[in-house]
């Protein structure tokens, strides 16, 4: 499956936020990339603001345009507030749940662990990063993979009480999805209503 593999600092500078985590380049160059980046101070149009929020969500969760639109269409057809449902669908992707559990330091690393068959759902190996985890399901590290250094390093000192919608179990090196996260439980700085407004025009 294709995914963005370009310079992450460039995307963070373009969006003006450290969406991939702490970024020294963004701290040093807090302006858009490009030759005229430091001199550009144009005010974004309404469309531009909405588009930037969509791009921020896509890059944050590592989802490409077609996948993102499909998720939006699914969210729009479900009960509830469309923007919040969209974020819930993104949060319950398997790679994101692995990241939230602290099994991997980044979403990209979580995606790699999933693709390399190190992760199980309800005891069965699942290697599809976009797999939707439902409340009640248990996501854990495969028995053979528990000694991997990257996993042990990620788990060391991780605060497993950060997300009230996931219950950690040290014995299995995994956790149960208790319920769908409420909007207040999702720390990402994404204005999902702007994304809804953008798609409503198309």
Please summarize what this structure is.
The protein has 202 residues and is of the alpha+beta class. 41% of the residues lie in helices and 8% in strands. The chain is built from 9 helices and 5 strands.
CATH class value of the largest domain: Mainly Alpha
How many distinct domains?
2
Which architecture of the largest domain would the CATH scheme give at its second level? Orthogonal Bundle
- Strand adjacency order, main sheet: 2-1-3-5-4
| Rg from alpha-carbon coordinates | 18 Å
Helicity range:
40-55%
Annotated CATH topology of the largest domain: Ribosomal Protein S4 Delta 41, Chain A, domain 1
| Proportion of residues in β-strands | 5-15%
User: Main beta sheet: strand number and arrangement?
Assistant: 5 strands, antiparallel
Look at the structure and give the mean pLDDT: 87
Q: Tally the helices.
A: 9
Shape call? globular
Give a structural overview:
The protein is an alpha+beta fold and 202 residues long. 41% of the residues lie in helices and 8% in strands. The chain is built from nine helices and five strands. It has helices at residues 8-15, 24-28, 46-61, 65-76, 82-91, 94-100, 107-115, 149-155, 192-200; strands spanning 119-121, 124-125, 138-141, 166-169, 174-177. It has a five-stranded antiparallel beta sheet with strand order 2-1-3-5-4, with helices on one face. A hairpin with a 4-residue loop joins β4 (166-169) and β5. The mean pLDDT is 87.
Please specify the SSE layout and strand pairing.
Blueprint: H1 8-15, H2 24-28, H3 46-61, H4 65-76, H5 82-91, H6 94-100, H7 107-115, E1 119-121, E2 124-125, E3 138-141, H8 149-155, E4 166-169, E5 174-177, H9 192-200
Antiparallel strand pairs: 1-2, 1-3, 3-5, 4-5
Helix pairs in contact: 3-9, 4-5, 5-9, 6-7
């Amino acid at each position: 499956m294709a995914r963005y593999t370009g310079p992450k600092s460039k995307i963070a500078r373009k969006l003006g936020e450290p969406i991939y985590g702490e970024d020294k380049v963004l701290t040093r160059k807090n302006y858009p990339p490009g030759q005229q980046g430091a001199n550009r101070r144009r005010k974004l149009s309404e469309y531009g603001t909405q588009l930037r929020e969509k791009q921020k969500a896509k890059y944050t969760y590592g989802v490409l345009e077609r996948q993102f639109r499909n998720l939006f269409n699914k969210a729009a057809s479900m009960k509830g507030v469309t923007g919040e449902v969209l974020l819930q669908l993104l949060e319950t992707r398997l790679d994101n749940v692995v990241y939230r559990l602290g099994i991997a330091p980044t979403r990209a690393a979580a995606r790699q662990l999933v693709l390399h068959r190190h992760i199980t759902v309800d005891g069965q190996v699942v290697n599809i990063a976009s797999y939707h985890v439902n409340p009640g399901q248990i996501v854990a590290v495969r028995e053979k993979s528990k000694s991997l250094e990257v996993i042990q390093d990620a788990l060391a000192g991780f605060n497993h009480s950060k997300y009230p919608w996931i219950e950690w179990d040290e014995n299995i090196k995994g956790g149960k999805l208790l319920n769908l996260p409420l909007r207040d439980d999702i720390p990402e700085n994404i204005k999902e209503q702007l994304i809804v407004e953008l798609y409503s025009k198309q």
